[in-house]
Write a structure and sequence with these properties.
Blueprint lengths: L1 H9 L1 H4 L27 H9 L19 H11 L21 H9 L19 H11 L19 H12 L19 H13 L15 E5 L5 H13 L2 E4 L19 H7 L21 E9 L2 E2 L4 H6 L6 E7 L8 H9 L3 E2 L3 E3 L5 H10 L3
């Protein structure tokens, strides 16, 4: 954990250089990889991460320096840099394999709030890490410091809302010069060679004075039921901006498009609305793993007939929210959140329930981030 704190102080200041303005290091005679020549600009960095057990090759003889860094690879590298702390249990992602080479790293990264998933239970193990994702991930290492926007990049509009402040901080700190034409290239992927240089530069730099460590951040869960995808999209944005874990409330009998047709008097939702006894919707899973460890729970749902969609009620009644701060949010094309949050709080009977927030169906990531920032979590 001590290594992780050191990384929070300095790693972000080196992470986005991505091969520009590199410090010269002594040349190496043999990198140990057939595809990394001794005179390559990244050769000594590759040798360093190999010798220190931070990154291995993609095979016995190859490092694949121009290959992209995947999300699983980055999780594994940061986990090793943090000292590979012991973890137990399993993650909640559907695209990770128990016992895989990245399993402990993904579990650690998600629990630390360093790398969250995509939603719908996905971590994206084989997806390349983009420059804006790296900015956001390493910004969280630094404690998510505030920063003024400063001068915009030429492609500023292409930077996702969840990464905007991270990119601003990195540039304000003088660590991002951009590519040609003053572009940030937020969707561009980082290569394995670039990440090797990032880690070598950080770990061989003189250790800075350790800053005062902020209090431990609360662990956040974003639980949600989404009928048409609108609530899931907002939930994903909340998870990205808070570093929270996603937990989708999935009915055992999923709602079809026909079921959701509220204009059809014979549809499932109309029947359940007119017959309250039929609203006891069974869920596939009621409680996420490690439920007791969460401090803050965002609870999302669409508005049905001016109230919270009833599939969330089982989650509320089946779990103990004692000691947790609960923050409702909803999506609706016209109706407000009304008293839905208060009603759910009454069903729960426990927890500190805050005033909720309604998002229109087309709410942007910027709208979501502005709201989560205002909560001061």
């Amino acid at each position: 954990m001590r290594n992780l704190k050191r990384m929070g102080a300095t790693l972000l200041a080196l992470a986005l250089v991505l091969g520009m303005n590199l410090t010269a290091f002594a040349a190496v005679e043999d990198t140990g990889f057939s595809d990394v020549s001794a005179d390559a600009w990244y050769a000594d960095a590759v040798a360093y991460v190999r010798d220190n057990g931070l990154m291995s090759g993609t095979s016995a003889a190859a490092f694949d320096p121009d290959g992209t860094m995947t999300r699983a690879m980055l999780a594994q590298t940061l986990y090793r840099a943090a000292g590979s702390p012991a973890v137990s249990g399993s993650d909640s992602f559907t695209d990770t394999a128990e016992g895989a080479w990245y399993a402990d790293a993904v579990l650690w990264a998600s629990r630390q709030g360093v790398i969250s998933g995509y939603g719908s239970g996905l971590f994206g193990t084989d997806d390349p890490v983009t420059r804006e994702q790296i900015a956001a991930i390493l910004w969280r290492y630094a404690g998510s410091p505030a920063a003024e926007a400063g001068t915009d990049f030429a492609d500023e509009a292409d930077i996702s809302a969840y990464a905007a402040q991270a990119v601003d901080w990195a540039r304000a700190s003088g660590v991002v010069n951009g590519a040609d034409g003053n572009r940030f290239l937020p969707r561009a992927s980082a290569t394995r060679a670039q990440v090797a240089v990032i880690l070598r530069n950080y770990l061989t730099a003189s250790a800075p004075a350790e800053p005062e460590q902020p209090g431990e951040s609360p662990r956040v869960l974003v639980a949600h039921f989404s009928a048409t995808g609108n609530t899931a999209r907002v939930a994903n944005a909340i998870a990205e901006t808070t570093g929270g874990d996603l937990f989708e409330l999935t009915p055992a009998e999923p709602y079809t498009d026909e079921d959701l047709n509220w204009t059809d008097e014979n549809s499932r939702v109309v029947y359940e609305y007119e017959n309250p006894d039929a609203r006891n919707t069974e869920l596939v899973t009621y409680t996420p793993e490690n439920w007791d460890e969460y401090d803050v729970v965002f609870l999302g749902y669409p508005i049905w007939w001016y109230d919270a969609a009833w599939p969330v009620e089982g989650f509320v009644t089946e779990n103990d929210f004692t000691g947790k701060t609960v923050i409702p949010f909803c999506t609706s094309s016209s109706s407000g959140i009304g008293e839905s949050g208060q009603r759910l709080a009454g069903l729960a009977g426990t927890g500190d329930w805050l005033e909720g927030q309604r998002f229109r169906s087309g709410a942007s990531d910027a709208d979501v981030q502005a709201w989560t920032d205002s909560l001061g979590l």
